[in-house]
Design brief:
It comes from Lachnoclostridium phytofermentans (strain ATCC 700394 / DSM 18823 / ISDg) (Clostridium phytofermentans). With about 100 residues, this protein is an all-alpha fold. The protein has two domains: about 35 residues, no CATH class; about 70 residues, TrpR-like (Trp Operon Repressor, Chain A), CATH 1.10.1270. It is built from seven helices and no strands. The radius of gyration is 15 Å and the shape is globular.
Amino acid sequence: MSKNIKNDSVDYLFDAVLSLKNKEECYVFFEDICTVNELLSLSQRFEVAAMLRAKKTYLEIAEKTGASTATISRVNRSLNYGNDGYDLVFSRIPEISQMDEEEAQ
């Protein structure tokens, strides 16, 4: 885990996120705490990560998501050399696990 972001303020934020009970509560909270562009950027990175795991090309990803190659590369670096946070979440989301299985066939 990256130690440079770990502090009381980040802990407080994560506690708030963990208190959310459903998708609607997530919408309400994240719309208040993030700008629209911040939220769209986060969701774009998450979609890019899913597509990279599904072995899509940078061109396919850029065309579908509108992400720059710099963003795709940054997400790819996190997937390959990061803290496995994406993999942790993807393993808990049935749709993404199913997409990985379909790509393998």
